[in-house]
């Protein structure tokens, strides 16, 4: 049986919840990026890395890649990101383009899961940035439908997380590992 390790970083707990659901489904270990050492995942046949999205890109992806490089590990990685925006192909394409430096024709195994916003658990700086962003959009003249939806989404905490969203990732990992 393939050894799969789930590594995640989570500011408000939403990515952590997805990492736990994935870990349970795959019967895998689940490690926090900030606490993981290279030795803890060197035995893995495949790593699943997840983080939240901030400013259209995956948070702490550079830290994860630094730890991989430092360890010398070169196996396959499947990525997932969580965010407050509903799933759509354009959102996913923009996150991939902003997060990864891919050469033409190359792709990365990537999955996006809608989660939400949790202002109560958000760090002060992050909360302030979200409120400032909402304020800027509120002051726009001729707001679009997207602007109105964004204002509403940034008004209070919400959680749209669902274990159903992880199904495609689970299937992909099982296919890659022959499970």
Automatic annotation (TrEMBL):
One MF annotation (Gene Ontology) recorded for this entry: electron transfer activity
One family name in Pfam for this protein: Flavodoxin_5
Boundaries of every Flavodoxin-like domain copy: 4-179
PROSITE patterns: FLAVODOXIN, FLAVODOXIN_LIKE
InterPro entries for this protein: Flavodoxin/NO_synth, Flavodoxin_CS, Flavodoxin_dom, Flavoprotein-like_sf
Protein name per Swiss-Prot or TrEMBL: Flavodoxin domain-containing protein
